[in-house]
Design brief:
- The longest helix is centred in the middle third of the chain and has 81 residues.
- The protein is rod-shaped.
- It is α+β, with helices and mostly antiparallel strands.
- The chain has a domain of 73 residues: Ubiquitin-like (UB roll), CATH 3.10.20.
- It has a five-stranded mixed β-sheet, covered by helices on one side. A three-stranded antiparallel β-sheet has the order 2-1-3.
């Protein structure tokens, strides 16, 4: 967007800088359009020289009080009438020999030189005439065009700023969503890691239990039998695991008179007959067991 001020715009349109300054002062800085309207509505002030009368002062070209008195009295001084001899013409303006633009004073020419880089100026006896009605219309049309361009430029700038703002907001939203997604993925990985660790721990525990259960049972070479009699204290004795049941019968027969049978307590089962030739290990009476004497 252009950074050119409203004053610069009017000066570039050809209005004298001093006049532009007075216009903005008179309109209290109301803007470009009011300032130009004031300039066009004060055509007589356009001919005021730089540093001339302020607003409300005596317009340029009107006779002062002393001049009017001298005129009415008939004692006219040719100098007061502004009469000059041929060849005594003085500069009424400055002209840029590079672009042929005319300027009211040296200050305006200097501003033009600083903006354009033009350095070739000369004095001119051509007065800067007030704008004609056609020129005023043209200036107003030019101002309308400038104002429209400024408005369009401002709207384009606002649209561009809106696009940049929306782009920034979308980028911030995208980054926020990406951050949330990354956090969700990190949480998923952490939960999966914990599940895998728990699964691995359970597997190791199972393997330990399997290994423990697969250990070969201890081989017992002896068994301790408690033999309960129909009366009296139980008989406790240690036998070899390879002893047959017959050996137990012979041992008990030394303690119990008469005939008898041996049986297990639970489940109750009489151990006799062919079982007498089996070892205590084969009868699962190792490493200890309780037998009952039945008479």
């Amino acid at each position: 967007m252009s950074t050119k001020s409203d004053k610069d715009t009017l000066i570039e349109m050809g209005f004298p800088p001093d006049k532009v300054a007075r216009a903005f002062q008179a309109t209290k800085g109301a803007g470009l359009q009011p300032a130009m309207d004031w300039i066009l509505s004060h055509p007589g002030d356009l001919d005021e020289p730089a540093g001339g009368q302020s607003l409300g002062g005596q317009p340029s070209g009107e006779a002062s009080g002393s001049e009017a008195t001298a005129s009415s009295s008939g004692n006219r001084d040719p100098n007061l009438d502004g009469e000059i001899q041929d060849g005594e013409q003085t500069a009424q303006s400055l002209i840029c020999n590079d672009c042929q633009k005319m300027f009211r004073d040296g200050a305006a020419a200097e501003r033009h030189a600083s903006r354009s880089g033009h350095v070739n100026f000369s004095e001119s006896t051509t007065p800067i005439k007030p704008l004609t009605e056609e020129e005023k219309v043209a200036k107003r049309e030019e101002l309308k065009r400038i104002l429209a361009e400024k408005k369009e430029s401002r709207l384009l700038q606002e649209k561009e700023e809106e696009k940049l703002r929306e782009k920034k907001e979308k980028e911030e939203e995208r980054l926020a969503k990406a951050k949330i997604k990354a956090q969700i993925e990190a949480d998923k990985k952490e939960r999966a890691k914990k599940r895998e660790a728990a699964k691995q721990a359970a597997l190791e525990e199972q393997q330990k239990e399997t290994a423990a259960s697969s250990v070969a049972p201890k081989e017992y070479t002896e068994t301790r039998l408690q033999i309960r009699q129909p009366s009296g204290a139980p008989i406790t004795h240690t036998f070899q695991a390879t002893d047959t049941l017959e050996v137990v019968y012979e041992f008990v027969g030394q303690k119990v008179p008469g005939s008898f049978k041996l049986m297990t307590t639970f489940p109750r089962k009489i151990l006799d007959g062919a079982e007498r030739s089996k070892t205590l290990k084969e009868l699962s009476l190792v490493p200890s067991a309780v037998l009952v004497v039945s008479t």
